[in-house]
Amino acid sequence: MKNKPWKVMTAAALMSSLLLTSACTPSEKSAEADKKGKESAANIKVPVIDYTFDTAGNMFAYSEFELSGEPLAESLGLDLDVLDVRKLDKPTKFDYTAGVESYEYSEEAMYEVTEKSGLGLHLIHGPVTAEFAKKTSKPSHEALAERFYELADSVGYPREEIFRNMFPTMIEYASGDPHYVKKVDTEVYAENDDKTYVPVYQVDFQSLRWDRGKMDKVLNPSAYGAVFLKQALWAGDFLGAFHTIDKDEELEAQTPNDDKDENIALGVSSADGMQGMILTEEIWNKLNFVRDRLFYDAKQQALTKAAGSHYDPAKGLVYLPHKITVVENGDELAPNAKELIVEDSRSMLQDQWLMLWPASEFYGMTDQRPANKNQNPAFLAVFDGAPYPSAAKENIDDNPANDVVSNDPYSVNRDVLLQVFKNIDTMHFNNEVGAFVEEHNGIEQGKRVDTFQAGYTIEALRIFERAIDGLPVGYASGEEAQGLNTPEGKRALELIKKQADFIIGQLMRKDGLVANGFVIGEGPDKSEPTLMAQLGAIRGLTAAFLATKNEQYRDAARTIYQAMDKHFWDKQLHVYKTGKDEMKYTPFLAGALSGVFRVAITNLNNAEGDQPLSALERETIISRYVDFYNNIIDGPSLEEGMQASEFWDTGDVYIKGDQSGNTDGDHVPQIQAGHGKYGIAPILVSVEVKKNR
């Protein structure tokens, strides 16, 4: 996120703002934008078929969008400084799509969930916030306000520039209605010299709440885990370096003590550092809530605490259940949970890998083990006691027998991480067939292996192995380094290899595609292959290749990709079919497709020594990537496409006198102008692609 000068708030208002109320002349469009519209609108319609905000699907998709954004463009040689959000499709359509749209859509959607919408329980009621309140003998809202001041000071961010009327979430709900419930405040907050202006809603979030009555008040690991993934990736990006206080210039970390210099502060910049701190604060509270309240004891049939490194599944399964309903306390301004009711006690594979992945990312950020020589000094500075406590000494040595219970970020995350990993291994991996089953009821495993879920479990395990063995994660998850060869890391690699071998040996068909799944005792699914299954297999096999360096897995991923492109690509509409005679796109599918484009561009494309495959020419993959964002995400008109709305960060600036609701002339409306009486949040909705007759 760029440093924006309009983040203003009076110091006196911060404390109360955490509890405040919840409930033209068109601009000149560029020739490029007109051309873009004519090309796509001529062939297809992409109407919305479901406006429900699926938290898990959206945050998963936007995590893939993030990784397929700036990091991808930069890895291909783009100088990010040449990007201008108001110069559509410059310097090339791909550069703009990746460096601006994919990346910024990802960031803004995260803030909608974690700071604006109210989709969950308020951070005021977080376990760590409660400890601060007890320690300072202050009410929770005052303690949280003081904590925000402390975080701002640590990154050199002015206290008076903190957003007003935030709703920081401690943990998020499974779904909701993304339409705004009141008129978005687009009045002028601050004017710029070029006739653009900053609307009030960008500094005051009071008008951006969602309808609490339409929220599915359920705690589902896929949902709060996918948000955790977004938070961990962005926090790692924002806090991965230092910056100078006088010029706000990023500095590469040399030592964990660099910030002891009076002119050096935590974070890559003041503004980004502040967001990184808020995200970390939310993660820390969420993890303590999850560890201490959301694990389910299958024997006792009750919620309990996780045991982390001391957990032995053989003595009784304790895991994250699929669905916990929240009975709120009736506080509309800052709701808390009055009661937690387990509605579905099954362990679902998707829930588990969508917790393993983010916990692994955060482990890499918080890791303070002396044995790990690959630590980023900037992260060590964040968790050296101020502003975040350092790890309990017993928990970072080489002896798990002396581990202690602690609520510091490293220790609580490790407890969740290790218990989830053990449960994925024990509850979901079928040793006889060498594959992960989709569900476990607390007593026995199910029989079905889902190709998509198994594939993404491999990717989650790849990140886990890197984190537990002290290898770089986050944007650097492809870098080489010397690992620690831990027992957990070795087991993760075993699981990765066996599941990858199963995909090749049991799921791949003669036509190069993979089956949608496999039922133990019966064999592969006979149903028509789906795009979703192909994406999961490609993602998983590529992850297996990256983890093991076994070229067999890369070759198999390339074969499936070529078959997928041949079987599913619609040459006339320039989109992939998603099934037999079907083109329905959900956030989960969109995220997986974005991720597969990325690994195809960086890992699977035709290279020296490969037998060339037409679909894997880099230029072809990039053209598919651009078509996907152009036709499916942005859509052919303002009423169509998956991206429901956008604002400043992707070029849709506010101009005095312009009532178009679309000043950049693309096909994504401003938030107050799209889909509904008061507009809609900048998130993904489900669509169906149809031929424009």
Automatic annotation (TrEMBL):
This is Uncharacterized protein. The lineage of its organism: Bacteria, Bacillati, Bacillota, Bacilli, Bacillales. It comes from the Bacteria. Residues 1-23 form the signal peptide. It comes from Paranoxybacillus vitaminiphilus. InterPro entries: 6-hairpin_glycosidase_sf, 6hp_glycosidase-like_sf. Keywords: Signal. One of its GO terms (biological process) is carbohydrate metabolic process.
